[in-house]
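Help wanted!
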Amino acid sequence: MKEGLIQQFEGYGEVARDIEVCRKYGIDYTLEKGSVEKFINRLHPGRMTLRVADIIEETPLDGTLRLVPEDGYLPPFQAGQYITVSLETGNIRTSRPYSIASPPNQTGYYDITVRRVKDGLVSHHLLDGVKRGDVLICSGPAGNFYHNPLIHDRSMVCIAGGSGITPFMSMIQEIVDCGLDREVFLFYGSRTLEEVIFFSRLEAIAGRFPNIHFHPVIEAPPEEYEGLKGLVEGRFIRDVVGDPAGKTFFICGPQGMYDFCVPEIENLGIPRKKIRTEAYAPAAPVSNQPGWPENISPDDRFEIRIKDGKVFSARAGEPLLMSLEKEGIFVPSECRSGQCSRCRVKIISGKVFQPTGTPVRRSDRRYGYVHSCVSYPLEDLEILI
Amino acid sequence: MSDYDVIVVGAGNGGLGAAVTLSRKGLKTLLLERHTVPGGSATTFCRGRFEFEVALHQLSGIGTPDNRGPLWNSLKKLDVLDDLEFIEMKDLNRIVIPGVLDITLSTDLSSVMEELGERFPREKDAVSRFFKLVYSYAFELYSYFTNPAAGADAVPLVKRYAFKTAQQVLDEFFEDPVLKAVFGAYWGFLGLTPNRLPFSYLAILFFSFIEMKPCHIMGGSQALSNALVNKFISHGGTVRFNCAVNRILVKNGSVAGVETGEGDEITARYVVSNASKVSTYVELLDREHVPDEFLKEMSIKTPSPSGFCVYLGLDCEPEEIGITAATNTVMNSADLSDNQYNRMRALDFDADTDMAGFSCYDVADSRFSSEGACQVSLLTLKYADPWLRLPPTRYYAEKYRCADAMLTLMEKVCPGVRDHIEEVEVATPLTFMRYLATPYGSVYGFNQYAKDSLFMEHSRETPVEGLVLAGGWITDCGFETTIKSGISAAGTIMRSLGAER
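Answered by r_m:
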């Protein structure tokens, strides 16, 4: 009936002609089958198959895996971003994020540098179990720890701890390779001199490029050591950098380093928004975190009941994600430090501990969704995956 | 026996509207979403101490306590009203042409007419005649769609204006191009410049916003998506996140289920696809199940623009940098012709010719961000094409160059904004493409030229029995309509089941 009406509307003839023309010369959408995925994969592949081309021993503790793409293509990324390696070790399907240490101006390979973690599950597997020629399944590059030219100063004060040097290696290499107009003051905290990753490379770069300044800070140095000793203190920064105003601070390292360095930097009069920190999972034992209930020990165990699924017991001090993985329950994960919400699950009943500042959407909190990589059971739980 | 009565592909507004309705009717329903969180466009993300709203600028159709709108009624049907808090916005839009115009329109009709009359005294009468037309036209539209039997002569305004563009009508009423631009500024919500946009959509927008007031949702649009998922689960529905669908399975001409990204086959008697119509017909269904006529019908439609959006977390209150309205449009000139349309097809953003809108929800409700902070979403419409041609290695540099130019434009209204940025995230057309999986990253479904507009008979029929579509690609775009499309999709299934019995 409406069809009959619109023909009486002013201008109908023209609209009808439009339709006729478009039917003749319109878009053949079938020609674009698969194009959305192809375009997106050039930048943000969900999954990459990478082959280990080389394994480079960096220090007694660290090794670099050089990864090349099976299909010949690696997406560009922003220096400082990470990839997540998915793997199965000891019958546990899990994943770990590693910052890309190689610079983004070449995408022939990605380097990831792995530090051996005492009692670690994955680091030993990657350093001892993986051989040249093996294949690793990885996520596309992700993460928010990079120099953003919209808001970050051209002068960067970078503070690294241990294997936290990797994002800075990528940034520094990019700056010198591409001649970017940026200045870097790198303070690299390490327990011993031997454990400083990329020492000779960093020294060589700093020797050649006046905009790169390299200052290792050694906790337990040899007796004759003349460089900076101890922890990365605010006064070291002031002495080297001079006026810290107009500079953006970047920190990447273990949790202890943030706990120590952020207040040190703030004491220099630097506002919080000028201090960018890479995401990190809480250091074990989690019971040292502020807000952890006194009456619960990390070794307490609680019953986890998955709705319409398995029931098992989990340690309070272990992230829920890890406990699930150990039970053979796969939950996709990426950053494993509470940021990306990939491992989001719903807590139907029971309480979990979440470190303060974990960025969970307000409405997620309301309906009990948590990021399971930084959630620790404090009671028996029923959860929905 | 099928695994499920219904599988809903996609947890956008359309998929959620369908899933909640179906599960409430007792149907065994599975909702599959490829992303980690529900919502599609209706979502938020966190950076630092900010939770950024992705898509919602002004919610239409909620209405006021004594005049409830269509969206309110939809949400009532879905039984989520108790879970949501709506914040009425005081202003319609602040429109700025630096050096020429800076006007804030309120949401009250007589005030809007007064504000415009003051700024454009010579056209005061024209303004009131125009609003009279908008209102009469909206009422006629209502009678046209509810009582078509009355014939074309019962709706003389519809008969006259249905196929006119917004620009044709503005030209008929007004002299001053600046005044025309004030009315035309809202084209950004609709995807076509006024010289291409059917007048109907502009009229409906003004009528709806003034009569029913624009709103925001506490907690952002994610609060809506999460409330709907929660309701779905409480009705016994099953939801799986991180679960893409590769194919819709067909047996003997009828829907049989879906194949997931992991290769699992799940069977169902009905499938609701909240994927774009293009993806549904081209990617999800095998070619042999889509007769040529369906592709022909789709071929006359063009994908709407995508967006370029800069999300800003600021370490100050809105007024400190001169933000006085929740919704703002900044233009460099009153020219909203094809000059502006063509800029959507360019990769770059030109701070001296292009236009952008920005929303600061904290003006409507100070609880939106933490104390001493506010957030801004700065948006311009862009087609994805030039971004698709860009070598990936240049992607990040271009993204920051465009975002920087957007900030330069915003500084014309908010000087000093750059000094207050604590967090920033940039979304390009490729970002929208990545998260929405729509062709060309379109954010408004198909473009709505007169030939695609509400008057044309949109067939709800799909090529496969038991397959029903929902979402912005089969209806006018926006929260109000997409949610309704989901409820309608559920209705189609319920009717089909009823007929069977």
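OP: Thanks! One thing I noticed: Chain A touches chain B through 57 residues (CB under 8 Å).
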